[in-house]
Design a protein that fits this description.
Elements lengths: L6 H26 L13 H7 L8 H4 L17 H19 L16 E9 L6 E3 L2 E10 L2 E9 L5 E3 L1 H8 L12 E21 L3 E21 L6 E18 L4 E13 L5 E2 L2 E10 L3
Antiparallel strand pairs: 1-3, 1-11, 2-5, 3-4, 4-6, 6-7, 7-8, 8-9, 9-10, 9-11
Length: 294
């Protein structure tokens, strides 16, 4: 053997020496156990081992990733249960017909006036003359073209017998210390007018929580005439004059039955005074009305 040994050769020699020592030690141990037979050393077939060992497959990392779950499709309206479907259908029908029936409803009038005549007798007072208080007595006739619109013709007497002197007039006439001319101008004798009456308001109210009364409220406007009396220029007598007069007003009507009503009316007259200026007598009257037809 070459005295010069390479490191690789030395390593091989050491490995075989260690293997021999191990085999000898094992043989001595088996001899001591009394087996008497040398141990069988089986060398596993590496090919068989390779065949018996399970095959380990490495999956494609990209393929191993779980596919994302598909997004849920929009929920389609599922068929409702029979009871729920019936309720929904009924509710939709109510909404539909409710819109169709969304109309203003006015309760039927108990007392109608359309096409009827109304006759009224009244008495009242004209309180705003400083020297005379008038007690007008008269009547009205209304014809209703429609339920809320009528034409009225009215007349009232306010002459001698239905007027009285005020305290101011009596004081001026009877006081000897005051030399006042108490001859009054424009003393009203009678008046007549024609007005259009519009009744936009109609309702009902309970009287004493026992009787239900229907009523309406009206507005009036028109023209008329008034006859006045004034002293002559020389104060020897009196003279009368018929003057045009404007008429405005309002009224309140209580229906007691289908043909009988109670009326409260206000009329504001406007006419020219003797010597200039404007007279504005305010007439307040209470009357009883009778309806024909219906």
């Amino acid at each position: 053997m070459n005295a010069k040994t390479t490191p690789l050769a030395a390593a091989r020699i050491a490995a075989w020496t260690a293997a021999s020592v191990v085999l000898l030690s094992a043989g001595g141990a088996w001899a001591q156990d009394g087996e008497g037979s040398s141990p069988e050393i089986k060398v596993a077939n590496p090919e068989a081992k390779a065949e018996e060992s399970p095959e380990i497959k490495v999956a494609n990392p990209e393929a191993a990733k779980p596919e994302p779950a598909p997004e849920p499709a929009p929920a389609e309206a599922s068929a409702p249960e029979p009871e729920a479907a019936s309720t929904a259908s009924s509710g939709d029908a109510d909404l539909y017909w409710g819109k169709k029936r969304d109309l203003a409803v006015v309760q039927k009038r108990l007392f109608t006036k359309d096409g009827r005549l109304e006759f009224t007798v009244f008495g009242g007072i004209i309180p705003n003359d400083p020297f005379l208080t008038y007690i007008p007595v008269g009547g009205r006739i209304n014809y209703y073209f429609v339920e809320s619109l009528s034409v009225e013709v009215a007349g009232a007497y306010t002459g001698s017998g239905v007027r009285s002197e005020t305290d101011l007039k009596s004081f001026l006439k009877n006081n000897e210390n005051i030399q006042a001319n108490t001859d009054l101008l424009d003393q009203q004798i009678w008046r007549a007018n024609a007005v259009v009456v519009w009744s936009p308001f109609y309702g009902k109210m309970a009287l004493l929580d026992d009787y239900l009364s229907h009523f309406d409220i009206n507005l009036a406007a028109g023209l008329g005439v008034v006859q006045t009396e004034s002293p002559t220029v020389d104060r020897d007598g009196t003279q009368t004059e018929i003057k045009p007069e404007g008429a405005l007003g309002a009224g309140f009507r209580f229906f007691l039955t289908d043909w009988f009503a109670l009326r409260l009316d206000y009329r504001q007259g406007i006419f020219q005074k003797v010597g200039g200026g404007v007279s504005t007598p305010s007439e307040l009257t209470l009357g009883l009305s009778f309806f024909t037809g219906g």
